[in-house]
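Notes for week 9. Today we move from apo structures to complexes. The key idea is that a small molecule is not decoration. When we ask for a structure prediction with 2-acetamido-2-deoxy-beta-D-glucopyranose present, the ligand SMILES becomes part of the input, just like the chain. The input block below holds both the sequence and the ligand string. Read it once before you look at the output, and try to guess where the molecule might sit.
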Amino acid sequence: MRLQAALFVAACVSPAAAIYRDEVNHIDFHHALLGAPSPDSTFFLKPSSASNASLLYTISDKSILGAVNPRDGAVLWRQNLSRAGSPAGAGILRGSDGNNAVVGAAGQYISSWTAQDGKLIWENQFLDGVVADLELLELEEAGATSGTRDTLALISGEGTGAVRRLDGASGEIKWEHKDESGDVAFQVSSSPTEVFYISLQSALLKGYKIKVTALDLVTGRQTRQYTLNSENDIPTPESVLFVGANVASPLIAWADKTHKTIKVNVIGTKQVQTINIENTSDHEIRQITIHAPHKLNSLPHFLVHYVTDNGAWADVYHVDLKSSAVSKAYQLPYIQGQSVVATSSIDANVYFTRITDSEAVIVSSASHGILGRWNVETSSEAAFSAISEVIAKGKNVAVRAAVLREAGAWELIRNGQTEWTRHEALIDAVAATWVEAEVQENLVHELEVEGHESMVGAYLHRVKRHARDLQYLPEWLKELPQRILSSILTDEVTNLDSFGVSKPVIVATKSGRVYALNTGKQGSVMWNTQVEKTSEWDVKSIVTRPGEVTVYIGDGSSVTVNVSTGEVISRSVPTDVKLQAILSLENQETIGIKEDGSLTGAFADAAAFLVTTSADGHVLGWSGRDSKSPVWEFVPPSGQKVISATSRPAHDPVASIGKVLGNRSVLYKYLNLNLALVTAVNEKDHTAGFYLLDGVSGNVLYAANQAGVDPSQPIASVMTENWFAYSFFGDVVDESSAKGYQLVVSELYESSAPNDRGPLDAAGNYSAVDSLPLPHVISQAFVIPEPISQMAVTQTRQGITTRQLLCALPESNSIVGIPRPVLDPRRPVDRDATTAEAEEGLFRYAPFLEFDGKWYLTHSRDVSGIKTVLSEPTLLESTSLIFAFGGDIFGTRATPSQAFDVLGKSFSKLQLVLTVVACAVGVTFLAPMARKKQVNLLWKAN
Ligand SMILES: *[C@@H]1O[C@H](CO)[C@@H](O)[C@H](O)[C@H]1NC(C)=O
Ligand SMILES: *[C@@H]1O[C@H](CO)[C@@H](O)[C@H](O)[C@H]1NC(C)=O
Ligand SMILES: *[C@@H]1O[C@H](CO)[C@@H](O)[C@H](O)[C@H]1NC(C)=O
Ligand SMILES: *[C@@H]1O[C@H](CO)[C@@H](O)[C@H](O)[C@H]1NC(C)=O
Ligand SMILES: *[C@@H]1O[C@H](CO)[C@@H](O)[C@H](O)[C@H]1NC(C)=O
């Protein structure tokens, strides 16, 4: 009891929850994600001519442009290029060494960003189509002042195409060439004097002819035009293998349909040279890719990479630009397994890096001699593309290559060593859950067994359990000195793992993957498994059981994987009903909820109740006695439709049933486990209703209606203990209302008078269902600076610690934890708090709630796209785990009442031990002296 009291007092300490600088990245972690990198728009680039250090630039399938540090894989800056309302188009990114800008495009927008720090230089929108290709003009014009190169943009619209030259510094159009012939606008390429616009002309019968239009570089005027007869080989635009960007590789290449020959045209000439493919493998060629240098002064050499189902080989070709002749130089041999090739150049020399399952090899384009060879670790993921940077020092070469793997993983291999891996598929996380440590679960199971046996049986079981535990004793004794030593020498913050603060988190993504992240080790990936080949995995819930975790899908199927390895243990087949949610009941059963709100089966517990929502906006209540028809149905009034419903969390301990007021009287909390908070909106007249329902009877216990609500803005709600909160964007409707984002907090009490339990006092329990008394509700509204997309509440083991309201803020890309006392609806309005109120912790109400810098759990990090915030208790009452996902991944520990049960970092155990030793030594020395002195005194006195 005394301990509880101590905890309680500690919990009341003012909640200044800022973390120390040295705890950043220690108790929290952040994966800043980009999405799967686009292979054609990922490259190494030196952002400034003053330094040799290069960065990795990419644009992802989510149209996020990012610069990544090749040393550690950290994102240095990133920008979201997609704009609301712009048609989707593949992201394109271009940059060149010595240019201080990278130019990116997505949909209708082109924008230029400083390469070093990602600041916007200009942005341009083209309404006549989406950007199909971009190139940077490599040659600086005489008289150009800035270091930025002009951009060539190809816009592809409905049956039209346009080539535009954009000024490097301002993005303004210098000239444009319009093509209204109905051709497919395909690519652009440039030479020192001309711009080539390459389009695909639909041939009479089938296929496409390649049409090349040469434009004057300075004026954009058409100088000549010709077509290449390729219609028999090119059925779709995707059949064109390669179009070079500039004079480093002025080529157009395609293969015939049977993969017998490759046709190569040097841009600017009409000749088409046919190269026979020497098929040395005994398998069909599945894929042909062409790799050529991009840097202006590189030799015009290129490599053709042939991939079969079993292996791959490559041929290297040289182009004679004078005669436009293409000749084969040498071959890279057929190797079984996967293989990817990357090109890089140093001055004029071109290097090809080939990475296979077992090794990384560098060759020069000039001859087949191997310049460097390293062993690489085999990866289970198939690689589909790579980019590389080769550094030559005298005779030695070094290489770092970024390998793009399936499922968005991105891996940097330096001289054969994997330096880092970015798991970009986590950006599509749709569900997550914590894993209980297995040891604890076993103990829980054993205790459950004991609870169900007779007194004697339980006693014997317990004696046996302790006897079994004895086998670990020698091991434990052996480790003891080590543990004592390490606990004295290391600081406390690292040492909390045994208190459940580093539980793994299981995350399922839309792309059919399951990840296990170690929250104790900066959220590092422990394992990941492609469980399903899909891009729309409709995960409804994840349930962990000892040793395994089951992912439930909306089609009624489920997959169970081993929690420590990620191996698939079992699968269940889909059913023909589509489910909107899947609940896991306490007895390990699951129950599906169909789109119309009905249940897939009965739940065994006859006393339990379930509340569901239906697709047409009703709320249904079910009892375990009858799973066919609902016990009650709630239809919100005045044309409103239910958009969400929340309940108290499954783990929601209440430390005290009353609130002690300053004058020692008590307000009793209205604690009902069966509450549901329903949010309904009417999109036409812009009203929103928040209804508190009793889940057993369906009675409305409390209703709040808000007018002037913008239903297109996020509406979030949460409920716990005896209070709930919701937020919305409200417009001015009358004098008393305010325009802005509002956060409303309501507390439920049994009675408005202190020391009064209302009608419940006599009832003793809730059995009198129909006459359930209504709660006394105290509400207060706050105006907040920005929208809240999702709310949650910190969870602690016993609920003693003050709670924090966790809010995901999509506008500032952060998560705040608002301390509960700040949101107390009983804060005095228009006057200062009396002494009694101040004693309770109440202070004067202010309508505008500014988010304090200390509340930001994400601190200065840019945690973007968060859709869900989860909280989980630990064995430490003070500490709550937080995990957020949906875009980035973020995890931290929250201590809303400070870490009162943990010794801080500044507490030195070593110092304590030394002090005790010093005291002991002092006492041993001083005690005989003191005794002698006393004896002497006695003698003197006599
Ligand atoms: C860049 O590298 C070259 C050769 O590798 C060297 O000569 C030059 O000094 C380096 N520049 C800087 C700024 O480090
Ligand atoms: C990028 O911005 C667009 C438009 O504002 C938005 O729809 C999209 O969700 C953003 N993407 C990410 C990953 O945040
Ligand atoms: C390559 O050779 C194998 C066996 O000789 C054959 O099955 C395959 O079709 C050939 N591929 C091509 C593209 O000719
Ligand atoms: C999970 O894998 C581990 C290691 O391979 C194994 O010891 C354990 O039995 C597996 N658990 C289940 C439930 O299959
Ligand atoms: C204690 O204070 C509350 C208001 O803070 C008041 O309603 C109540 O009557 C007071 N009780 C006593 C016994 O003074």
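The first helix runs from residue 2 to 11.
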